[in-house]
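FAQ

Q: What does a record look like?
A: Structure on top, sequence underneath. For example:
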């Protein structure tokens, strides 16, 4: 269902980034105009006249998808994605899968439900920063009630607002910290406050 919505969205306007797609979708879910927006991808923030500048926003469609997943934790770690030189540390962990799914033209803008399902089964979501000082994986781990693990030297813009762990630290799963993280994400990274 979400992928069908995405294909309709792509026909209406050219796609630039996930951040733009998520923000536009969140605005349209509230029947707010989405034609005049600004995206600052490096700083992970979005602007519209209705919202002013807000941090990365996730639409209800994605939040609902992850909320409906079973959360029985059967694995310790999960990472699926491109392993660049600044992400090499993730390969030290079990559950690390190299993938270019999000970089291929055919699959670039498709929601990978198996990705979210696997993340929801993990206690810890490996969330290295990439080219920007924040990571979608960080928020995806939070949405799936996995504790985000960032690199020892990573400087994630949003990590200070959440319970996080670092590469090399002792990793102890804490379900209450995951719930607190989730409530922070809902409060700060969705548009529910505009309802």
């Amino acid at each position: 269902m979400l992928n069908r919505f995405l294909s309709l969205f792509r026909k209406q306007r050219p796609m630039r980034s996930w951040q733009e797609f998520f923000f536009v979708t969140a605005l349209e879910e509230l029947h707010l105009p989405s034609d005049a927006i600004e995206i600052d991808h490096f700083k992970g923030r979005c602007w519209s006249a209705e919202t002013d500048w807000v941090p990365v926003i996730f639409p209800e469609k994605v939040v609902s998808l992850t909320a409906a997943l079973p959360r029985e934790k059967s694995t310790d770690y999960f990472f699926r994605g491109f392993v660049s030189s600044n992400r090499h540390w993730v390969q030290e962990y079990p559950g690390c899968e190299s993938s270019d799914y999000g970089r291929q033209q055919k699959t670039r803008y498709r929601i990978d439900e198996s990705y979210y399902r696997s993340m929801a089964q993990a206690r810890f979501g490996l969330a290295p920063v990439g080219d920007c000082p924040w990571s979608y994986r960080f928020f995806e781990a939070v949405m799936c009630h996995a504790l985000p693990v960032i690199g020892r030297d990573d400087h994630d813009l949003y990590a200070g607002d959440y319970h996080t762990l670092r590469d090399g630290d002792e990793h102890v799963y804490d379900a209450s910290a995951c719930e607190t993280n989730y409530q922070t994400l809902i409060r700060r990274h969705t548009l529910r406050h505009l309802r």
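Q: Is there anything notable about this one?
A: The helical segments are 2-12, 18-29, 60-67, 113-121, 136-143, 175-189.
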